[in-house]
Design brief:
The structure is a single chain. Among the domains are: 12-74, no CATH class; 90-144, no CATH class. The protein is built from 8 helices and no strands. It has helices at 12-21, 27-40, 45-52, 56-69, 93-100, 116-126, 135-144, 163-166. Helix 6 crosses helix 7 (135-144). The longest helix is centred in the N-terminal third of the chain and has 14 residues, at 27-40. It starts with 11 loop residues before the first helix and ends in a 6-residue tail after the last helix.
Length: 172
């Protein structure tokens, strides 16, 4: 069993700011202050979590963040990743562009037009990516190339060579 984690000793200024945070109208700040003060009193993460109404791992995360960063844990940060990981490298983009200008049939696919999931599958098979990715990842890579992706429209077609003659003419 791991040793319980507690906040480091609080300075007088930190103590005052945390006490002031208990009167905040922001529930995020209030909850964080309650967690820090509970830990400063020597309460374990599970007890604090029950008192505050959150998971004990959340309590541990707040304590670790406070010990590392100080009072900045009282302010909610951005939830966006600091750096978006691009699964398709810049070197692979020209190969993707060349691939898009070919037909799916050239890669043994029984489709006449590209779809994003189909492009993702062929990119994996051709070695442009090392692991399966979503169609959205491929769309973002296409966007980095300067293109926009439009959904495939399905048209009625036939393998019959005489289909154009047999097809009734449209009126209108």
């Amino acid at each position: 069993m791991k040793a319980p984690i507690f906040v480091r000793s609080l300075t007088q200024e930190e103590q005052q700011q945390i006490q002031a945070g208990l009167h905040s109208s922001d529930a995020f700040v209030l909850r964080r202050c309650q967690i820090l003060l509970g830990s400063a009193r020597g309460e374990r993460a599970g007890v604090i979590a029950q008192h505050v109404g959150c998971d004990d791992q959340t309590v541990r995360n707040v304590i670790k963040s406070f010990n590392r960063e100080g009072l900045s844990v009282l302010h909610a940060g951005s939830r966006r990743p600091h750096r978006l990981q691009q699964k398709l490298s810049e070197e692979a983009l020209p190969r993707l562009e060349a691939l898009m200008h070919r037909r799916p049939e050239d890669f043994g696919k029984d489709h006449q037009r590209w779809s994003l999931p189909l492009l993702a599958q062929v990119c994996l098979e051709q070695g442009l990516i090392s692991e399966p990715v979503s169609g959205e990842t491929i769309r973002q890579a296409i966007s980095r190339l300067g293109y926009t992706w439009k959904r495939v429209k399905h048209w009625i077609s036939s393998p019959d060579p005489l289909y154009p003659q047999k097809k009734p003419h449209e009126i209108g």
